[in-house]
Amino acid sequence: MSAAVRENPADKYLRKERMPSIWCPGCGIGTTVNCFTRALDASGYDLEKVAVVSGIGCTGRVAGYLKLDSFHTTHGRAIPFATGLKLARPDLKVVVYSGDGDLSAIGGNHLIHAARRNADLLVVCVNNLTYGMTGGQVTPTTPQPAIASTTPYGAFEQSFNLPHLVASCGGVYVARWTAYHVRQIAKSMGEALQKKGFRFIEIIAPCPTLYLRRNKLGEGLDEMKFYQEKSVVMNGADTREVSLDFRDEIPVGKFVDIERPTLEEAMESQLSKALGAKYVPYSLPVKA
Amino acid sequence: MTTATAPAANKDAPKKEKKFRGVVTVNREHCKGCGFCVEFCPLECLDLEADYNAKGYHPPFLSQPEKCNGCDTCGLYCPDFAIYGYREKLDGSAA
Ligand SMILES: Cc1ncc(C[n+]2csc(CCOP(=O)(O)OP(=O)(O)O)c2C)c(N)n1
Ligand code: SF4
Ligand code: SF4
Ligand code: SF4
Ligand SMILES: [Mg+2]
């Protein structure tokens, strides 16, 4: 019997020369990336046809660690870069991987419009409830009354319920998990990769260095145990019911899985209707 | 350095003949000692070493190799791609 040590299945998706990552011990971002590699592995996709686009932040680093064609774009602009990439290269699966601040604060307008247009993108949002990279400032997802570097007396603004935001703008696949739900994340990512249109997976993840420490909530592992204890699976739930409150139950699950024409499909159908034979569908020449 | 631990292919007659055994591979130097793998191993067969790696973290090891079934739950949890479990067919098994 051979005792050869097998390779880690994540390795072929990673730029190993950049490991270990910059992520802090107990940070949840890497766990989500691990799940993503397993989803890719199970999908059997040609890796030449998968591209990852990130914005800026600790989560934004994902684009730099994945051994795929990847774009590390400017802060908040991952979705517009990705939309352009997808329109120019309709043969690619385009995945946006970024943080809550990047996607819902500075990039919030892009998020709602890409969902409204049903841009053919999978967006993975690692929501650690803070701006990790810049020192733990309050974000649109920080629950009241959590302490952040910019809310020393506790956050007082109402936070976003991201699944509801995306669902009400028209996203066709909307799910939320926590970093504790590794198998569900991998399965959800696999399902969402297969689907067309605007797909959004929110993953609640520990930022021990800034969010947890400032709120005296312990280490990453304590937070993972908290997720285990406090998550409630609510597949198919009305997204109005899945808002997150500070230290309360965490509704998780797949909330939306519907079909409607994507941005490309809607454009093609309208323009060919209006222009008839004069319309040259531009997506076709690129498709090999 | 990467280390693999597995039980010695065994003799002490198990009740049910095992067709495979679990093997766990740890990249000690990439581990940051977060403990996710130890906590969420469904069969509780990992522990953190008392020893340190070069960065000063305690990496995990397979403390109860006979229990491990190679499910790779530890592998999925690791934020640093530093551990992975798999199944190795045992000699003499039909599979
Ligand atoms: C235009 C611009 N504004 C501000 C910044 C500073 N900045 C870098 S990362 C970041 C926040 C990232 O937060 P999030 O997207 O939640 O990612 P995390 O680090 O938490 O994973 C900010 C504000 C920047 N790089 N560019
Ligand atoms: S600062 Fe927070 S989000 Fe950034 S790597 Fe550290 S734990 Fe992760
Ligand atoms: S492979 Fe499964 S049983 Fe073995 S150590 Fe890892 S999690 Fe535990
Ligand atoms: S999950 Fe990974 S980084 Fe954390 S203790 Fe286990 S091997 Fe080390
Ligand atoms: Mg964040």
What is the compact description of this entry?
Chain A is an alpha/beta fold and 288 residues long. Chain A contains eleven helices and eight strands. In chain A, strand 5, helix 7 and strand 6 form a beta-alpha-beta unit.
Question: What does this 3D model show about the protein?
Answer:
The complex is a heterodimer of chains A (288) and B (95). Chain A is 36% helix and 16% strand. Chain A is an alpha/beta fold. Chain A has one domain: Rossmann fold (3-Layer(aba) Sandwich). Chain A has an eight-stranded mixed beta sheet with strand order 2-1-3-4-6-5-8-7, with helices on both faces. The termini of chain A are far apart. The model of chain A is unreliable at 284-288 (pLDDT under 50). With 95 residues, chain B is α+β, with helices and mostly antiparallel strands. In chain B, the strands form two sheets. In chain B, strands 1-2-5 form a three-stranded antiparallel beta sheet. Chain B has a two-stranded antiparallel ribbon with strand order 3-4. Classes of the chains: A alpha/beta (288), B alpha+beta (95). The A-B interface holds A 1, 3, 5-6, 8-11, 14, 19-21, 23-31, 33-35, 38, 180, 182-183, 186, 219-221, 224-225 and B 2, 4, 6, 9, 23, 25, 27, 29-30, 32-36, 39-40, 55, 57, 72-73, 75-82, 84, 86, 88-91. The structure holds thiamine diphosphate (TPP), iron/sulfur cluster (SF4) (3 copies) and magnesium ion. One iron/sulfur cluster binds next to strand 2 and helix 2 of chain B.
